[in-house]
Write a structure and sequence with these properties.
By secondary structure, this protein is an all-alpha fold. It has a single domain, classed as Ferritin, core subunit, four-helix bundle (Ferritin, Up-down Bundle), CATH 1.20.1260. The protein has four helices and no strands. Helix 3 runs antiparallel to helix 4. The protein is elongated, with a radius of gyration of 16 Å. The chain starts with a helix and ends with a helix. The mean pLDDT is 86.
Length: 147
């Protein structure tokens, strides 16, 4: 597969991962109850906005590269990491799902950087910025699960 098609696939994966994360965070924000969950809800409202911002940056980069930004018909919640927050789920179970999602998007950004570092510095820079944010999210989640 040529570099352009591979990059488009990675950007689509990252775009959908960011949207999925935002949906998960909004769900937690709106559906959590209990002391620890209410604390988490306050954190995840801001995280949701940040994840939507990441998706917008990726969409902008896709447009610059001449790619089509995928729409809702191409977004499959079942395969994008969206979770259904159930009342019987423990807080650590919820955080564990989110950690897995963060690890996956980190892998995607590292792949984008590896693919573009020598040929497309703009995309590599964006992926590096987003990677830093996602590594911070992962660290925060890992800290929360340890509390």
């Amino acid at each position: 597969m040529d570099e352009s098609k591979t990059l488009n696939q990675y950007l689509c994966q990252a775009y959908f991962s960011e949207i999925s994360a935002a949906i998960n965070y909004l769900s937690i924000f709106n559906n959590c109850s209990g002391l620890k969950r209410e604390y988490l809800a306050s954190i995840f409202k801001d995280e949701a906005a940040e994840e939507f911002g990441h998706a917008a940056k990726i969409a902008d980069r896709m447009k610059i590269k001449g790619f089509t930004v995928p729409g809702l018909s191409e977004f499959n919640l079942a395969t994008q990491g969206a979770i259904q927050i159930e009342s019987m789920m423990t807080t650590n179970a919820i955080l564990s799902y989110l950690i897995v999602d963060e690890i996956e998007v980190i892998k995607i950004y590292k792949s984008i950087i590896d693919l573009t570092k020598d040929t497309d510095p703009g995309t590599a820079d964006l992926a590096t910025q987003l990677l830093i944010d996602e590594e911070e999210h992962l660290s925060k989640l890992q800290h929360l699960i340890g509390d």
